[in-house]
Amino acid sequence: MAVRARSRIVIARLFSSAGTGFAYTTVRPRIADRLVLMKYDPIVKRHVLFRERGSSKS
């Protein structure tokens, strides 16, 4: 069986640093570092830091 080539992008799950469990899903290039973004968390009703944690299968 042939080896499957790895894609150039990854699906990244961004989890709220406020500890609410809210998460965004986005894509990033495989060669880039893990994402850290300021985004809106509707549970605490403010912008908080979201960090990439783990990974989804793509």
TrEMBL record:
Pfam families: Ribosomal_L33. SUPFAM superfamilies: Zn-binding ribosomal proteins (SSF57829). InterPro entries: Mitoribosomal_protein_bL33 (IPR052008), Ribosomal_bL33 (IPR001705), Ribosomal_bL33_sf (IPR038584), Ribosomal_zn-bd (IPR011332). Keywords: Mitochondrion, Ribonucleoprotein, Ribosomal protein. The keyword Ribonucleoprotein applies. Its main location: mitochondrion. GO terms for biological process: translation. It is found in: Mitochondrion. GO terms for molecular function: structural constituent of ribosome. Belongs to the bacterial ribosomal protein bL33 family. NCBIfam families: rpmG_bact (TIGR01023). This is Large ribosomal subunit protein bL33m. It comes from Pseudomicrostroma glucosiphilum. The lineage of its organism: Eukaryota, Fungi, Dikarya, Basidiomycota, Ustilaginomycotina.
